[in-house]
Amino acid sequence: MGDGTAGIGALDDILSQLRIDVIGAYFSQCSPVWREIDYVPAHNKLYYICEGEGWLRIGDKELLPEPGELVVMPANVLQSFSAIEGRRPFLKYWCHFTADIGDAGLFSWLDVPYRLTVDAELREEVGRKFEALVACAAERGIGARLREKAYLLELLAPVVERAALSRTGGTAEDAERIMLITRYVETHLAEELTLDGLADYLHLHPNYLVKYFNQRFGMPPIRYVNRKRMERARLLLRTTDRSIKEIAAAVGYPDTNHFAKAFRRETSASPSAYRAAGGVPGEG
């Protein structure tokens, strides 16, 4: 297994390559119908519970987070969330973000605790940091992008400090395949992406690829691609002044109307309404 010093060195090497981007950050009261069961998000989520109750499932772990806890919900992991009937739903800060090491997700490299209790004397400080993150995420400009990354890293630091190198993320071959998939999809979002094209790139039979995606990502390949397209579109709508037509083309939709319909299916809002609302997609 190696000694602790070697483990720390490996963690340092991994984190030195970290790329992180905020998709959106918010403070909201969940509604009594806050609920989604058995889905696989393409992005990570960080919650800070302020008040109320709720139920979460991440992989095979069921959680009932309490006020004063941080909760990490990694990308590409089967999960569910729900309000609890008869109980006040969560009042929480929450952030959707990407965090990658090379071409793989941070949490495929690290085993992190899904929930972390913040010490009582630090809770006000954590609330202030999340409030600042929410404010930065609502702004445009390079300065806001840099500040939001800094605040998110500060909020993630106590979670990562308790991390260990993952020994359950699959084989080296599996990790390499996931890196290839992520790299290929994210660098070809402006193009037509087909099941056969992705299978050819990975040198896999299309039927096997569908089975692999369902096992690893909880969804078929084209749905995964569409999730990635919408994730990129949300980021561009929130952080740039590019036109809807330009953003549609950048994520593989030459027809703006087709893009608008797909975006509404994913977020329950039109691209223009999403942008006007500052990128708030609902109670994520």
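the 2nd protein, sequnce then structure:
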Amino acid sequence: MAFFAMTANGQETSLVGINRGSDLTTIARRLERGGYELTNGTWVPLSKMYHSNWVDMQFEMLTQLSDDFGLLWGASTGQRAEKVRIDPDVQLGFIVQKRPTPSTTLTFTANSILGGDLTEQPCTASYRLGGVQKVNCRLAASELPVADTLKHLVKLHPSRLKLSLWFRGQF
């Protein structure tokens, strides 16, 4: 069900979805957990660096070009915290619908996402031995060598291609 529709040149455009958060948002939230202790004993919660006040919002539109074909398009806002970000994205796709019988509908959608990567940024830490170095914030107090912690920075991509096939029958 569309929230609103605009008609131009026989084409109708409708807002078909608004989503708050995504799989990558869930991962970004998990990075907020825990913390580490400084050499002076001060506890530093990771939430100070990883929490975002804004959650990624996705908007999906449908421009209906005929009774059985339409273009899907949309975008997301992304989200940003000091040490982790989800880039905004653009979504493009199409939907095809066929009616094999008067009481059944077969629908296929394909949607591609451009952008939307989740990237974790390193911290700068001062170590008694070794001085000031870049380090993975979550692993700064671990026993791993400082340089090795950088290999564990999170860099993820959203699902780039989404395919759906629906069959609906009325009895």
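Residues 5-120+155-169 form one domain. The chain has a mean pLDDT of 91.
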